[in-house]
Amino acid sequence: MKAEKLRGKVLSDALLERIKKEVALLRRPPSLAVVVVGNRQDSLRYVAVKQRTAAACGIRFHLHKLSETVPEGLLHRELRRISDDDAFDGVLPQLPLPLRFRVRPALLCIHPGKDVDGLHPLNAGSLLLHANPTYDEADQKSTLTEKGESLATCLLNEERYFIPSAALAVHALLFSYLEKTAAAALTPPTNRRNLHAVIINNSMLIGVPTAALLQREKNFIVTLCGRFNDLEAVKQVSRHADILVTALGKQRVVTADFVKPGAIVLDVAINEDSTAGGKTPSGRRRLCGDVDVASVAEKAAAFSPVPGGIGPLTIAYLMQNTLKAGLLAEHGINCSLPHFASAQEGAM
């Protein structure tokens, strides 16, 4: 039997509908400012999707475009100016930046309370150092939400930092599937212990925060691999994974040889598909992930397709982070994490 396709659209549509309802209740809609440097076409297309999604939720979207030739100092000043403006709740530089720009100094120019990408070192560190809830406590929190807590209440009660949306998307899609299969087998999720998760990506955008979220559950053994590891060695490790998350950025590199029978495979990569001239019959760009679907679907229990898997959920969780920033601002909750000023000064 072929593997089940884990599509993110149902979950993302439900989340976006909840966000839209909460936005309508605010005194003013949350606002998201995106700074784009240069004219990289894939980045501009991705920003356009963010803009359409924000509009559908009632979130104000502000695009700030800078030439690729601007001095790095001007980019930093623009990010600080936007971050200091109370009109904007969320601020992010669209990544990747052109090669001559350093990412870390740019991120340090954004207030951590407006860093809806969750990449500022103080947000990333807060996630890694956060006290881990037990799986049972996580279940209880989920149950409370289902009993009537609004999304706004949940966001106001949770931690005062931001988690990268791709990691939140992986977590949501994975646990949606685990809960569904547990219910079908009449097995409580709390009985599922020591699942081995292998993540083929060690970036602060995907791999590291995803590992941190899974480790918070206290029932995962997590292995992180990266693009600089030998691919054959990665294959030997991934063959033992109950859950395989990949964002290597190489089309169809993850074949059935990487996959344990019955594993859950989540593909976070978005690659240009070179087959058939890289275009669909209608002339649109053809995309694929890291996973060779033809072979993996015969061996895995479930996999997320590209496009249509993790992608829609990633943007939905970016909108949720923006809503969270707007809620905190409206309620006068200060997200100014300790030592922000000194960290910012060190980047100048």
From TrEMBL:
<protein>
    <submittedName>
        <fullName>Methylenetetrahydrofolate dehydrogenase-like protein</fullName>
        <ecNumber>1.5.1.5</ecNumber>
    </submittedName>
</protein>
<dbReference type="InterPro" id="IPR046346">
    <property type="entry name" value="Aminoacid_DH-like_N_sf"/>
</dbReference>
<feature type="domain" description="Tetrahydrofolate dehydrogenase/cyclohydrolase catalytic">
    <location>
        <begin position="6"/>
        <end position="117"/>
    </location>
</feature>
<dbReference type="Pfam" id="PF00763">
    <property type="entry name" value="THF_DHG_CYH"/>
</dbReference>
<dbReference type="InterPro" id="IPR000672">
    <property type="entry name" value="THF_DH/CycHdrlase"/>
</dbReference>
<dbReference type="InterPro" id="IPR020630">
    <property type="entry name" value="THF_DH/CycHdrlase_cat_dom"/>
</dbReference>
<keyword id="KW-0378">Hydrolase</keyword>
<dbReference type="GO" id="GO:0004477">
    <property type="term" value="F:methenyltetrahydrofolate cyclohydrolase activity"/>
</dbReference>
<dbReference type="GO" id="GO:0035999">
    <property type="term" value="P:tetrahydrofolate interconversion"/>
</dbReference>
<keyword id="KW-0554">One-carbon metabolism</keyword>
<dbReference type="GO" id="GO:0005829">
    <property type="term" value="C:cytosol"/>
</dbReference>
<keyword id="KW-0511">Multifunctional enzyme</keyword>
<keyword id="KW-0560">Oxidoreductase</keyword>
<dbReference type="InterPro" id="IPR036291">
    <property type="entry name" value="NAD(P)-bd_dom_sf"/>
</dbReference>
<dbReference type="GO" id="GO:0004488">
    <property type="term" value="F:methylenetetrahydrofolate dehydrogenase (NADP+) activity"/>
</dbReference>
<comment type="pathway">
    <text>One-carbon metabolism; tetrahydrofolate interconversion.</text>
</comment>
<dbReference type="InterPro" id="IPR020631">
    <property type="entry name" value="THF_DH/CycHdrlase_NAD-bd_dom"/>
</dbReference>
<dbReference type="Pfam" id="PF02882">
    <property type="entry name" value="THF_DHG_CYH_C"/>
</dbReference>
<keyword id="KW-0521">NADP</keyword>
<feature type="domain" description="Tetrahydrofolate dehydrogenase/cyclohydrolase NAD(P)-binding">
    <location>
        <begin position="193"/>
        <end position="325"/>
    </location>
</feature>
